[in-house]
Amino acid sequence: MARPREFDTDAALDGAIDVFSEHGFEGSSAQMLVDAMGIGRQSLYATFGDKWQLYCAAVHRYGLDECTRHVDALRSGARGIDGIDAMLRRVVETADQPCLGVGSTYEFGASRPDLEKIKTLLGKSLRGAIMARVQDGQREGDIAPSLDAEATADFLIANIASIRVAGRGGADRAALASLAEMALRALR
Amino acid sequence: MARPREFDTDAALDGAIDVFSEHGFEGSSAQMLVDAMGIGRQSLYATFGDKWQLYCAAVHRYGLDECTRHVDALRSGARGIDGIDAMLRRVVETADQPCLGVGSTYEFGASRPDLEKIKTLLGKSLRGAIMARVQDGQREGDIAPSLDAEATADFLIANIASIRVAGRGGADRAALASLAEMALRALR
DNA sequence: CTCCATTTGGAATGATCGTTCCATAATTGG
DNA sequence: CCAATTATGGAACGATCATTCCAAATGGAG
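ok -> structure tokens follow
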């Protein structure tokens, strides 16, 4: 076997995630993508197929990473409510970066089966992790026992999206922190 | 004066709003626009200038209309909390239609001065109307007096966006209604 | 050093983009 | 009926799109 240095597929995907997050699928050209990915055009098509498959790969990987970070934050707190608070705080701190999840959801709605498959898969996993912490919080007396854990998890996921939309619109960190605080209020 | 039947500018804008809402700016072609607007290509450029100006006009008019509907709903309830509830209920009922406000925010962030001008203008007006009802609710004992009215208004606006993102992602009406109910919970 | 798998980017392709030109159709006041 | 005005849509333009072809460069294995 002999070949030149193989490019880093993961690093390339990171570049694609940046471009797609900032400009959406339709707003990202192949040239913008190869520039940000640091690979040649030929490698892009050989490795990922076409622009749409690259987009799906980027959404998939972004979703996996983001899900991991949410879950890590959730588990970082001793009490359930602390984990949830940590998760929201991290979202506030990173809300200046556009979210490919929200972006792809709003650009394509529920019209692309490729994306739906990715999102239902990751959505289930994140919702489950949040639900577990909500139930912890209920057991620990920090969250109202009358709340339905699944509905509460969905509310928190929706408020993560809302913080990111607000951040994308230019809201400053104090305003975003206030949104997170108000969302937490609904759990008590 | 002699001319063929002049086309309905407002109806044409409605068509443009539909297309831009569903496909975004980059995803909407001039052909899709003239088809949905029911006018000729030449009329589009003569009346609106170019695609970007048409987009701004669509965002502006959509924002004005949407703001009016929010405020009407806000005023429809006797108590402040009833108005806020009515506003959220209307959002839930219409969340199957994509929102051009959220769409333009997420497609362009805060990078387009044209859009920023429209959004700060309409945002201020809507926030003011919501704040007034929040203060009503506080006076009437339905909303916690400790809450900052402006932060509460921002929270409600953010949750309107979150309901629409969830709706765009395919959530059913019951799930959306649950999001609205949880948002209201944060006010008590 | 040689070979060969692999990456690369310029050039080409055909499609579509936004936009403009222009000839035609339509409508109404005179 | 005529004239004036406006809307229309096909054709054309140059730019850019996604994608493919291909020749040149790369660098480790033998």
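Residues 1-7, 34, 39-43, 46 of chain B lie near DNA strand D (CB under 10 Å from a C1').
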